[in-house]
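Following up on my earlier thread - several people asked me to post the actual chain instead of describing it. Fair enough. Here it is, all 435 residues.
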Amino acid sequence: MYCYKLIAIKLINMIHQDTSYKYLFLFVFFFPFMGLLLSLYYWQKSWAKNVFWFACMYMAFVHIYIPDGSVLGEGVDIGRYVAQFQEAHNMSLTFNEICNSNVSRDFYQAVMTYLVSRFSGEGHVLYLFFGIIYGFFYSRNMWFLLERLPKCFSKWLYLLIAVYFLICPIWNIGGVRMWTALHVFCYGALPYLWDRDHSRLWWSILSIFIHFSFIMPVCVLLGYCILPNRIKIGQLFLNIVMSLYLLTFITNMLDVNQIGAFLQTMAPNLFEDRVAGYFGEEYVGKIAEHIGSHSFFYKVSTYVNQYVILYFAIIAFLRIRKIKDRAASKVKRLFSFALFLYALANMLAIVPSGGRFIYVAQMFLLPAILFSLTNFSYRYNGLTKIVLLSSSVWLLFVIRAGAECYGINLLIGNFITALPLETNVSFIKMLLYII
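Reply from S.P.:
Thanks for posting it. Predicted structure:
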């Protein structure tokens, strides 16, 4: 008891003094969920992003991969990855055998599966290592925004900051390839677009090896690395990309098969079979059936998310297009890239799985919107406040989705007790049992 009291005292001192990390991380090791809450509440502290990273590791560690009442791997990416991992461990598969058994051309998941399977066959251990990588890039991308916000800003903007945090939250790690690639890509691209920092661009290129589909945003980024040096991002350029963004909301009338045929001709031979798979009739039908099964809550929250972003994109566009100071040039560069990428994502959203790139675009558009609202004074009228409050619908849906990935272990467990107290009963299942 005395030990816990000592740790608590040291923790309080740490929060207010920003000195040694030793006792703080010891506390988070035993109470990771509390560490998560502390990192968000004290986000301006120098230790916050590392404590958040540490908490993300734990959340990846206790992510449920065999939901109660389901078959391992049935329709769930994480179940399939764990099944492959356990097979690799039990049969001592070589790296080549793992790659040959892996239907994807993405190397990251295969490499991690091979390395971790050499010493463990526990799926939670695999996802702990996935969480170390995912949590690092996730935390850095979140604090990229937070560290650049002014010290004082409207409390209403915390809703938009929450939207940014939950565009690709830690529980997306179940689909580890796509969503790790998203954060790795953003980790390299955001500093370049904001500060012209070239040193991390190679991280964005590496995202292709985590998920092959990131060849598209990487090509856009590399093209953008060339164009801004020659073409000033002025009123005409902003008008063009804003028009593209608005017009692509009607692209659902395009023909899926024609787009698939075009992409197959443009894709490198290495990825040709993957593109064909994503546009094949069987996959299209499977995704259509899956989308049709989505709840009313899901559909409403998706529309709310899209139109909240649209509303604030228009506000940001109207505010920054005529401002010519140095801060505005940074916002314009980030904003124009986000709009162009969003326009492409809107076009891809009409095909199976293409809608995921909307979240990639939002990872750039939300910071641009927040920077424009905080750097250039804006009055929050009644309509704006209503739109901000409506974003709560989407936030609640994302949190509810996360509640399917975790059980009571998240709240009361730690790195020592997680495996002995493992439960496959999620918060949603527990609620249904109680009702």
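DSSP finds 22 helices and no strands in the chain. That should answer part of your original question.
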